[in-house]
Design a protein that fits this description.
This protein is an alpha+beta fold.
């Protein structure tokens, strides 16, 4: 991922002005979760566990191309699927794409820099992610036609969603 250092305040202001949202992101060591959640007044007992599956090739072809493909199972919530372009230049994205339901441009701010991304979110059918994880449904079945077009626009030549494999992460939010 290409990221811009926080010493570019003018660029950060421009990106925030063109974005739909801004996310502040940080990683917290296991030993610091309780103090951090207390400082931020977050009650972890109300957090929703999630299973997050990132799709890529074994040699991380998509990652190098700045494309993130993710599906997420969320406890007691609707599952989702996302195709994300990172970094993205908001002014270079077409107006038709920006009007798509589920599309957004956001700026992620981390302690050492920031990056602008564009994502298109969908809602797979209930249970579809679980079926895809065990191989009973192709990965492409988790994405809308608009998401598949977005993927095809930015994916390296001839790579399809069904060429990808999954790794997973667990998180709470």
């Amino acid at each position: 991922m290409s990221m811009t250092a926080l010493d570019s305040p003018q660029l950060l202001r421009e990106l925030v002005g063109a974005a739909d949202s801004v996310e502040l992101k940080l990683c917290v060591a296991d030993s610091q979760v309780q103090p951090a959640s207390a400082a931020l007044r977050i009650d972890l007992r109300s957090a929703r566990p999630r299973q997050i599956f990132y799709l890529d090739t074994p040699d991380l072809t998509l990652n190098r191309a700045g494309l993130i493909v993710r599906v997420r199972r969320i406890y007691r919530r609707t599952d989702d699927s996302v195709i994300k372009l990172r970094p993205a230049a908001p002014r270079q994205l077409g107006a038709d794409l920006r009007r798509q339901k589920g599309f957004k441009v956001e700026v992620d701010v981390m302690p050492d820099g920031f990056v602008c991304s564009a994502s298109l979110k969908g809602r797979p059918a209930a249970g579809a992610i679980a079926q895809a994880v065990v191989g009973r449904l192709p990965w492409s079945g988790l994405f809308t036609a608009e998401q598949r077009r977005f993927f095809s626009t930015y994916a390296p030549d001839r790579l399809t969603l069904d060429d990808l494999s999954a790794c997973w992460a667990r998180s709470w939010r």
